[in-house]
Amino acid sequence: MRTAASPILVDQAELPGMLATLCSYESWFGPYHPQTLGLMTQVAIACLHAGELDYARPLLERAVGDLGRHLGRDHDLRLRAIASLRDLFIAQGDYERAGAVQVEIFECQIQRLGNDHPKTLATGQSWNDLTGNDRLGLPWRMV
Questions:
Q1: Measured between alpha carbons, how far is 127 from 123 in angstroms, rounded to an integer?
Q2: Is the model more confident about 39 or about 123?
Q3: pTM for the predicted model, two decimal places
Q4: Most exposed residue of 2, 48, 63, 97, measured as fewest CB within 10 angstroms of its CB?
């Protein structure tokens, strides 16, 4: 399974242009337009892959918050952004925050797909692997 932090090739020389394009989208469409929020997520993930965590983190935190407010807590794009934020926290060694984000992803999966859906179970198992804890204390069961 590929995660947001899986190694991909990102040319760091392209990051300034990507950030400039994001600024243009914010001016043209507004900061909360789905196109802007989608590009913000893409740019943040590119920064993460390029190792530019100081750029990626504020973009991801902003994207997660704005996507939740404007498109909904369990919107696909928000879940992608929050999974990338979790991966960033792991890369920074902040396992407590990564675990908290994983719990939120898990709760969204339960709401969207149900307790016994394979993606929900896989998300719960990822939390178990991350924390070494076998129980989330949430309404679910491992099969």
A1: 6
A2: 39
A3: 0.77
A4: 2
Tokens 């190792």 sit on residue: 51
10 Å CB burial of residue 118 (0-12, 13-18, 19+) is exposed
Tokens coding 94: 């902040």
DSSP conformation letters of the chain: ---TTS-----GGGHHHHHHHHHHHHHHH-TTSHHHHHHHHHHHHHHHHTT-HHHHHHHHHHHHHHHHHHT-TT-HHHHHHHHHHHHHHHHTT-HHHHHHHHHHHHHHHHHHH-TT-HHHHHHHHHHHHHHS-S--SSS----
Domains defined for the chain, CATH in brackets: 13-131 (1.25.40.10)
Query: pLDDT digits over 22-57, tens only?
Result: 999 999 999 999 999 999 999 999 999 999 999 999
What is the rounded distance in angstroms from the CA atom of residue 31 to the CA atom of residue 27?
7
